[in-house]
Amino acid sequence: DADLLPPPPPPRVVEPTGLAVAYAESSPQLAEVWRVWDSLQKRSTSALATQLARFLAAMIEMGPPKVAAYACRKVLRSRTKTLYSNLASEGPRIVRASLRLMSAVVRHSPTSARDLLQRFSLASKPFQSVAAIGQRGGGGKGKGKGKGKGKGKGGVVSG
């Protein structure tokens, strides 16, 4: 029977390149990223907070292994309250970025997945809010953003 099964796929090897890798190699604890995130705590729905969450997710998914492991630990130990807040946000971009970051942590290792599930209750209000958005068919533009009169092609809509 074992001969009938296909061989397991080869391990996925991702070789990230560019500025992000150079940064991760020069600052393996991503100290500057955490400092910027700390400065944004009062405005966690800002576009910069969204980009930071996306960057951290990418570092966990594709960054150097030691950097990814450190970022997972840091998120789990000191950023869960912020992630809860982001999930309860009205801004769909920060919600999606936070979910992506959490997903990256879960996929990183079985240990980080277990730790995240111990820290987050899927029955909590923020997760129920996210589930309700999905049931309403959300995921598009929130509350008519970008549909107002006078918005030309160059209009900038934050969110």
TrEMBL record:
Residue span of region Disordered: 133-159
Residue span(s) of domain URB1 N-terminal: 30-137
Annotated coiled-coil segments of the chain: none
InterPro entries in the cross-refs: URB1_N
One Pfam family of this chain: Npa1
Protein source organism: Bicosoecida sp. CB-2014
Phylogenetic lineage: Eukaryota, Sar, Stramenopiles, Bigyra, Opalozoa
Descriptive protein name: URB1 N-terminal domain-containing protein
Biased composition (Basic residues): 142-152
